[in-house]
Amino acid sequence: MDIAKKYYKRNAFLIFIDPALFMNGMTFLSITAVIPYFLIKLGATNTQISLANVLVSLGTLIPQLFIARVVQGMRYKGVNFTKVLLVQRLIFAAYVFTIPFFAVSNPRAAVIMFLIFWGIFSFFVGTYSPFYFSIMTKVIPYDKRGSLLGNSYAFGSITGLISSYLLNLFLNNIKFPLNYTVIFFVGIFILIVDALLFAIIKEPPDEAIEDDNGIIEFFKEIPLIFKTNKNFRNAVISYVFIVIANVSLSYYAVYATRVFHARPSDIAAFTAISLATNVVSNVILGQISSKFGQRTVLMISTILGIFAGLSVLLVKNMLGVFVAFSLSTVVNSGYMLSSGILISKYAEQSKISTYVAINNTITMFFSTLMFMISGKLIDAFGFMTIFTISLISATAAFLQLKYKVVDN
Fold it and tell me: What Pfam family is a match, any one (predicted)?
């Protein structure tokens, strides 16, 4: 019996649990709420807060194609992925223990140290997609992926409400900086447990592809893929607009703090709203993906992205911010759920890691560029500039999906 069929239930359970653990762990390391507020407490500037986002994008951008080439040559991915994840998370755990010693006595040094360790952590993020989609597409049939991941994300969001409650408890009942020490430690611990899952997935061996060409030749292959695979090219263009549109997601908490003087309970509310929104959206979007396809999920998401931009631009109070944040969260959920699955439809199994890496590298290039200039744009023209760009990009993404992208 084929290994994927023999161990389907086991693998499906592990794939189901992974996003739930990951989402709960990242609740405590949220780049959209926890980390911006932590940096603000340390006295960081808008540019430094933007840099934290830039590092996430650069971390996704730089390693993608290099790691995809390595992953493509592996017969078994799971155990190697676990090793990579453990290195990433143990390094950041080392930083967490420095917080009580520097956050108050030398906050400037604390900001710099955070950005260094966060940069290392983010660099490893670039390994996620090539490994993950190579593993997931081997053990889960195409027609089951959308509903399985959608339900998984929803389950993660439901359990994440507990994490959100704990986050609020830690923020309000433990003094700074010990509260963030506890918050980051809990997050990293959950992520370490999550990393171990991939070591016990039963995956069929891949036919290892020996690639003797240098990295330059590997990069030269990219234009050829775009030229010959029109469906992939059109999807990537729409994804570029989506990631630009969702840059605003990282600034709602900062905007609320700078303009409306948001309190710790408001910051915790962002996380709670995110989790509650994910519960509903992922269940619905997962079912939509199974019945109507990944393109439909992405189109619905971009429509909500348009409304998010209108909300934050027209309703200038905390309610408008919360509504925009929740809608942008759906955009992100839809993109996370369906973008990779749709790409897997355009590529052979042996090339999935390469296609995913190409997409992530290109989209993260534009996302990184936006984050690099966003801090300066905010300082010069205000937050409305970023929100306007997001609105325009969401509109462009919808039009590209409607008229150029196919899912049949």
Answer: MFS_1
The Cα–Cα gap between 76 and 21 comes to 23
Diameter of the chain measured on Cα atoms:
63
| Domains, the chain | 3-204+213-403 (1.20.1250.20)
Burial bucket for residue 16 (CB in 10 Å: 0-12, 13-18, 19+): middle
Cβ proximity of 85 and 123 under 8 Å = no
Residues 37 and 49: their CA atoms lie apart, in Å, by 9
Tokens 């080392």 sit at which residue? 94
Residue pLDDT, tens place only, 68-120: 777 777 778 888 899 999 999 999 999 999 999 988 889 999 999 999 999 99
- Distance (Å, rounded) from C-alpha 164 to C-alpha 311? 24
What is the rounded distance in angstroms from the CA atom of residue 106 to the CA atom of residue 86? 29
Q: Is residue 239 within 8 Å of residue 393, measured between CB atoms? A: no
Closest by CA position to 36, among listed 128, 118, 150, 126: 118
**What are the tens digits of pLDDT across the range 242-287?**
999 998 888 888 888 888 888 877 877 887 787 788 888 888 988 8
Judge whether 319 and 108 are in contact, CB under 8 Å: no
- Give the C-alpha separation, 408 to 392, whole Å: 28
CA-based end-to-end distance of the chain: 30
Q: Cα dist. 356→49, 218, 338 in Å?
A: 28, 14, 12
Q: Are 297 and 244 in contact (CB under 8 A)?
A: no
DSSP labels, 70-117: HHHT-S--HHHHHHHHHHHHHHHHHHHTTHHHHTTT-HHHHHHHHHHH
Which letter does DSSP use for residue 174 in this model? S
